[in-house]
Amino acid sequence: MQSARDRLAFPLDYPNLAEARRGAERVVGSAGVLKVGLELFVREGPAAVRLGEELGAAIFLDLKLHDIPETVERAVASAAGLGVRYLTLHAAGGPRMLEGAAKRVEREGSKLTLLAITVLTSLDDADLRATGCTDGTAAQALRLGRLAVDSGVRGLVCSAAEVGQLRAAVGPDVVLVTPGIRPADAAGGDDQKRVGTPGSAIRSGSSVLVVGRPIRDALDPALAARKILDEIVAASGV
Question: What CATH code is carried by the domain that includes residue 26?
């Protein structure tokens, strides 16, 4: 990471481009990565991605791709053409899908970093058991993280609960992105079940923190983002 600001991602979870731009403008001085998710991208398309260039921030396109290998590979090429920095896909898509996506990034000569989703932070062990996975979130995240890295993917998405074990398993060069980040004084985890504080996640090995509602819903979003940036600086020494 070039700076502490590059380690804070703010989700543009807004219903339209105008609101997303206003939200981003408030916090972009502290959050150097803007995350465009399904809601905004489905409505606004590439115009949402162009907010990054407009505001001097990297774009994290969070589409969580999970499809047959050829379809995902072509979607990766399209994202690379948009100039996004990060793009998510599900590690559960399997080795052929992951390998094809990683090779397509190389062929495109892109700076795009693929991020393989391990286990969503909205899930816990009981949720996994309901899907037939009996090993629990920690074991599943480790299994899928290793699969993705072995398939050529250079980034992972995992919760604060698993980031330490994944950092130990995959080494220092893999980008680890951690959603479900809540300041120590935040009330509750909303629909996130596996959460952590900014400082603890950075100290455990996280590369980029995704912080949404604690910033977006604050009385002063700019101040809230700055406080989280200060925590990143204190924990990382950047």
Answer: 3.20.20.70
